[in-house]
Amino acid sequence: MSVAPDAVIVSPLVPKTASPISQHLPSLPRMSPSERQLLFERWRAACPEPTTELVWHTPFQLLLAVMLSAQSTDISVNRVLAPLLPCLRYPEDLLTLGLPAFEAAIRTLGLYRAKARHGLECARLLVERHQGQIPHTRIALEALPGVGRKTANVVLNTLYGEPTIAVDTHVFRVANRTGLAPGKTPLAVEEQLMQQVPQEFQQHAHHWLILHGRYLCRARMPRCSECSVHDLCDMGKSLV
């Protein structure tokens, strides 16, 4: 993932002159209910059980990895965490490691100093307030340092199986480009997706959207000729 929690993304589909008020007005989906159903049926057939590409073995490792992924790729996060995973299984382990060592270990990531501080403070609060466990509510998660709405959504979905959708650059792009759930801000897109994605697909929609944006519906040179849903997509239809 490559967007900081709660960051505002400006869609290339939105004129730069759009007023602040217009950014909060809902956009109308351009994909019909039957097209939405078919889109997710195809994604499910190709990948029935999608999940995050972040590597983790314990709930704390998942939370830490998602926090580190802000403005960094999953590949880079996996690379820096690989040697740490055996000794960073629980919040107490990060407190034992300490800030200088953790900073040094993740120094190749963007904003690593802030991420290291947030990670240590988050670990401390998990021990003090939650007995070292990862909270199961959005309010409790977002009360942790370095945890915004996007990070909370990923944890609630991946760890607890809740039908939340975290909007990163990939999800934002796919939702707008396809016409599935257009919106001018990540929150607007998230709200649209929660309304437009059929209920049976909501639990895995987050990962299908990310994987589609990461590997096919790329920001530059999208691979439309290889896309299984190009006939349902605004961009794909325009290329026919």
Q: Would you mind describing this structure in some detail?
A:
The chain has helices at 33-46, 59-68, 74-81, 91-97, 99-105, 112-130, 138-142, 149-160, 169-178, 186-196, 202-215, 234-239. The two termini are 31 Å apart. Mean pLDDT is 88; it is low at 1-25. It is an all-alpha fold. The protein has two domains: 30-50 and 164-239, Endonuclease Iii, domain 2, CATH 1.10.1670.10; 59-160, Hypothetical protein, domain 2 (Endonuclease III, domain 1). It is elongated.
- CA-CA gap between termini: 31 Å
Count structural domains: 2
Shape: elongated
- Radius of gyration equals 19 Å
CATH topological fold name of the largest domain: Endonuclease III, domain 1
Query: Class by helix and strand content?
Result: mainly alpha
CATH architecture of the largest domain: Orthogonal Bundle
Largest sheet: none
CATH C-level category of the largest domain: Mainly Alpha
The tally of helices reads 12
Helix content: 40-55%
SSE pattern, N- to C-terminal: HHHHHHHHHHHH
Q: Considering the protein shown, what is the CATH homologous superfamily of the largest domain? A: Hypothetical protein, domain 2
As residue ranges, the low-confidence spans are: 1-25
Amount of beta strand: under 5%
Descriptive terms for the model:
mainly alpha; Endonuclease III, domain 1; about 50% helix; about 240 residues
Summarize the SSE layout with pairings.
Blueprint: H1 33-46, H2 59-68, H3 74-81, H4 91-97, H5 99-105, H6 112-130, H7 138-142, H8 149-160, H9 169-178, H10 186-196, H11 202-215, H12 234-239
